[in-house]
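note to self: the first set is below, dont mix up w the second
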Amino acid sequence: MNREFTFFSWSVQGQTNPIPVEKAEGIYFWDMDGKRYIDFSSQLMNTNIGHQHPKVVKAIQDQAAKLCFVHPGNATEPRGLLGKKLAEVTPGNLKKTFFTLGGSEANENAIKIARFYTGRHKILARYRSYHGATHGSIALTGDYRRLAVEPAMPGSVHFLDPFCYRCPFGQKIESCKRECLSHLEEVIRYEGPDKIAAIIMEGVVGSNGLIVPPDDYWPRVREICTKYGILLISDEVMSGWGRTGKWFAVDNWDVTPDIITTAKGITSGYMPLGAVIVSEPIAKFFDDKYLYAGLTYNGHALACAAAVATIKVYEEDNLLENAVMVGKHLGQALEDIKSRHASVGDVRYIGLFSAIELVTNRETKESFAPSVMTEVGKHLRQNGLFTFIMANNMGSIVFIVPPLCITKEQLDEGLEIIEKALKITDQASM
């Protein structure tokens, strides 16, 4: 019925082969035949607290029994509590939140707010990025999915990434002079600083290869934005909520953006919710100016209650601390895997946000054909591991992004399955 009557995202519909999921708990889920899978992508990098946490399930049940929905112009207790909590966990002077139903809507409204506030039109984003699938957010997205729907929102300008493994400027780490930052500033000058409302970047690039930037990259982009009066937006939809060992990825570099957009881990996927959190100056700007933004489900009571409970779980279960501790173990394990397998070109990791990039040759860094990665995916699925695999012009990548509640032992169990699957790519690389 799913295949006959519903569409699946980003796929040729006749080739879809979904797992019929019956139940889930912690880092595991089970299909209708009772087969257990280790969830190494947190479904899609969002079920950060693990599946079916009883405290969040109960909070949803309690709120549903009391009040599910009100007019978006009315106030509710969970909306207020969540707004206050977001002001506490976000960096610097970020204070006020506009709620949406997901990350794409959050980025759409961040664009609006940035344009209203600055009076400027252009938005800069990176090529290796994904910001959503709606009209404005897909225009900001840099990857191949943007091309299929162009022309999209005008005013979107892309620039190159700080991707050290595949440096677009042909540099090695030892010779790097941060040409990526010089390039960004040159693009700004060509596009006109007085025309650019904002630069939007993922805290750590997610589904386009999991790119962890050099330590000085975010601080220096912050300096560039301040220099030209451009707003800095951190898209923390995927990299936020403890995924990197901090509340938000930018916290790793002590950077305060002007706007944070987020979704996914804010409720751990238990309810649909997104958020645009803005600095105090931006918030005050709209005290006497009309905000041209609205959604029927803005501040949805049930979703906000789920988020309040989810944030409590992050704190009470020490999940950020666990992401750091187990993340160190993961990083070392990935380096060991790289040393043992010729087809592993690079491993990238920060907290429990990691990926293995596979290549046919370490010198040429050529990616594998999609058919090879399909075989890798089949092997993982047959052996009870579910994760996100990328096989396109952005590379051949296996993602390791488990729930933050995972133990070292559970992590090692999943990594063992992945390492056996790497025999496929090792043989194909010979």
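second set (the one i keep forgetting abt)
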Amino acid sequence: MSRRTEAPDELVARAREGEARAIGRLISQVEDGSPVLREVMAALTPYAGRAHIVGLTGSPGVGKSTSTSALVAELRRRDLRVGVLAVDPSSPFSGGALLGDRIRMSEHATDPGVFIRSMAARGHLGGVSRATPQALRVLDAAGCDVVLVETVGVGQSEVEIARLADTTVVLLAPGMGDGIQAFKAGILEIGDVFAINKADRDGADQVRRDLRSMISLADRPEGAWRPPVIKTVATEGQGAADLVDAVDQHRAWAEESGELDRRRVRRARDEIEAIALTALRERWGAVDEGNRLDGLATAVVSGESDPYSAADALLRD
């Protein structure tokens, strides 16, 4: 069947069987905003909700791609199917993802139990792509047990991953100022598990002590999760098993406490809101032939109106 006439339900069926090409096609439809995207999401929904979504974030150079590769290897040793969404900076020329970091995960490219996809951020802030939530649903429905989401690596703006992931892993490294960055950027609040990568370097123990001290000072209600701090050397695979164990422990706590359900409801709510806002903007564009929005903006600039009144007028229209 040709690519143009291939039905969404057939693509979904093939993705459910683990066919990498079908999975890739579905994610491409998500990224491109395909006209059949509604049908695709409807076909995927009955099969989604099983995968554990793990976000990995941290400053550039901390070793996110290498750590992701080490985690994939450990998860595969446990006979789990793994999906990876690696969000890259966008090319300023093509808008596509810059794929240099994916070389570090090339060892898993021929493993049928692993699906790796790079996605372009396309200017979307927060370290992830706007299409990430629906791409996660594709991998979830395709039978992945765990989906790893590796963020761009832009530092303090990456907190959005915490709204997408069931478990958020924050990576730090000695000698990079990461401890100070974590304390002032809110990263401490989003981390469910902290990993000190490159722990064979001087200063790793100090970073670990600083983190544990800050975690102990945080005001947490009784029964709240206390983030563990794991030391890893991702290039050697050291600490990967401990890191996976910590993620598993967080999932068990989240399921028992109800936090997992709360996070997934929040994720779905954010996704619904984003889709609705996108549809609303499209409707505005379709009906604004008389440049109504420009007229309202001009009135605000000239002082004839204020932004709230102008927004009310736009909504009435």
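remember for set 2: The chain has three domains: 1-47, 49-256, 268-316.
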